[in-house]
Structures are given as C-alpha cells and as structure tokens.
Amino acid sequence: MTAGAVALGIALTSVVIGIGAAAPAVAATTCSGDRVTVQQLASGCAVASPTVVLPDGRQFVVPAAGTTVSAMPVAATGADDAGDVSITNTGRTGVAVRVDDVWSGSAAAVQQERTAVRARTAVPDRAGVVSRGAATTAATKAATSCTNTSYTRLGFRWTAPVQWSYNPNNQKVTGPSAIGAGADAWTGAVTACGRTINSTADQKHLGTLKQSMGVTATGGCGTANASSVVGWGSLPSGTLGVTCVWSRSGTAVETDQRYSTSVNWSAAATCSGDRFDLRGVATHEWGHAYGLGHTAKNSGLVMRPSATTCDTAQRGLGLGDLMGIDAIY
Ligand SMILES: [Zn+2]
Asked: Which domains does the chain have, with CATH numbers?
C-alpha cells in the first residue's frame, strides 16, 4: 500500500535520526539492579541489560536501543487475559511499557513511542477510512465473525517473509504442518465471509532446529537472537500460547512462539475431546506475528483473546480479521 509505505518511510527516517544522535551519549542515570520494575523505569533511567518485571509477574529482557519487543498471549476461555505487552527501548529517553492500551515507564519514552505507534497504525485503509484499532465497542453487540469488522494493529509489519524453524523439544503433538497451516490462513488470496483480499503476509518454514525460543515461562520475552523459532514449553496457567515479536521502528525482525505443555492439544484434521486445536490457535498466534492485536472477547473473530477446546472454526478468518490483514499487507 503506497500511503502506508510512505508513512513508514517517514517514521523510519525520523527514528533513525533520533537514535543516531543519542547513541554516543551515555544517559545520566542507569537503572539500578538487574531486575527493574515499571516504577523504576518512570525515572527515565537507562537500561544496561536488565530484566523488566511487570506487576503481573511477566518478565522481559529489555531489547537493544531502538527496538520494541511485544508479547501477545492467547488464553483458554475462562482464564484471565494477560494482555498484549510492548516494551520499547528508545535509548535516549528510556523505556516505554504498554499493556493493551495502558502505558507506563519513562514519560518521555511513552510520549515518543505513543506518537510513533499512532503514526504507524493510522494508515488509511482501502475504503479511505482511517483505522486506529480498538474500534470494538460498537461492534461487540453484533458478535458474529462475518458481521464484526473490528481489528487492532500492533504497530509493526514484516517487509519480507517470516523465516522460522520448529523446535520439537517437549512437543505435545507434531506441530509443523498445523502451525504452518495456521500461518497460511493469512497469506495470498484469502476469502472469508464472501470477500476476497490479496495478502502479502508470508512465511517460510526452514525445518527443525533445537534452539530455544525467546519466549519465557513467565509469558514474557527473553533475548532476541535473529532466528525465529516456534516450539513448546511452560507458560502461566491458563495461557495456551505466546508470540513474541521484535521490531525496529515498525519493521518486524524476529518472532518466536511458544505453545503450552500444560494442556492437551490436537493436530488432527478433526479435533475431539478436551484438547485445543493447534491449527486454530496457531492461526491466532500468526495473526499476532503479522501485526494484529486482540479484538473484543465476544467478537467471534480469530483475534479475540481466548480460545475454547476444539475451536476449529478459528482456523478460518472472520470479516474483521480479513480487513485487518488487508490493512497491513
Ligand atoms: Zn492473542
């Protein structure tokens, strides 16, 4: 989309200039300790390589200056929705923390990042309407997947196919084909609810790699390593999966996904019993990986924040999901 590309180019330029100017300078104060709270970040202190601990217990390794790390969970229905998290290290102005639409951390960093996210997500869509996400309130009453047009954007996108590897350690079911099918739901000519769009969101499965994911057992994100890995492991109770994405000025550079080893999964064509449908949940996680945030709980869309067992309907996009991916790609 031309308008989006232009807007992104402007944002990249301005942020790169900001970082370039800041890089040589050493910030006045450094956050003390190797575990930093959101309250400490409010002082605007600079981070060396500490871990930020959110009030809900999720821990994040602060990314390099100029980088945002985002964690998007999906919960089992009935469990608490932990909320989407983005942590941006602006370098000079400190660290901004966002949990859904609530910001905290360094006030100067929050102001800078909030403005940047607003600029990146307020791109006119194909109908010429400006979408700022979170337009869910009015739509929640008509909660079926083909009448709900809501979507939210996380503020990043990929400029090349996501190249990912699969780590089979501790796998509950054999994952790659179901996880790949979940990704494919967002790619190419996608038809949903009688409408067809053409999406350039894409991925390539590189094969098996026994490398750890940058998703931690707290449901937060660890260190980026320039390699996107999908696998299995512990997650907080009620959380089915978490996707972490690292981005720089709105361009995604790495994504890791972890699926919970505490629940039962199905990777079969038809799901039965007290199991979660891996393909359906993976469709949701890839929606996050490509840049979509959550919609309302009762939206009926793939991007609602929780899933029920054997929810195979989640394998296919709803109208809002389709419009969201179309707006980004
Ligand atoms: Zn989610």
From this structure: 2-328 (3.40.390.10)
Half-sphere exposure of 282 (CA within 13 A, CB side): 22
Ligand 1 center from residue 224 Cα (angstroms): 20
CA of 84 to the centre of ligand 1 (A): 7
Report how far ligand 1's centroid is from the alpha carbon of 288 (Å).
7
Residue-wise pLDDT for 179-195, tens only, equals 999 999 999 999 999 99
Three-state SS for 144-197 is CCCCCCCCEECCCECCCCEEEEECCCCCCCCCHHHHHHHHHCCCEEEEECCEEE
Stated pTM of the model: 0.82
- Give the distance (Å) from ligand 1 centre to CA of residue 108: 28
> Ion ligand 1 — residues with CB under 5 Å?
72, 74
Query: Which helix (H) or strand (E) element contains residue 290?
Result: none
Query: Ligand 1 centroid vs 185 CA: distance in angstroms?
Result: 16
C-alpha 211/C-alpha 206 separation (Å) is 13
121: region left, alpha or beta (phi > 0 left; psi from -120 to 50 alpha): alpha
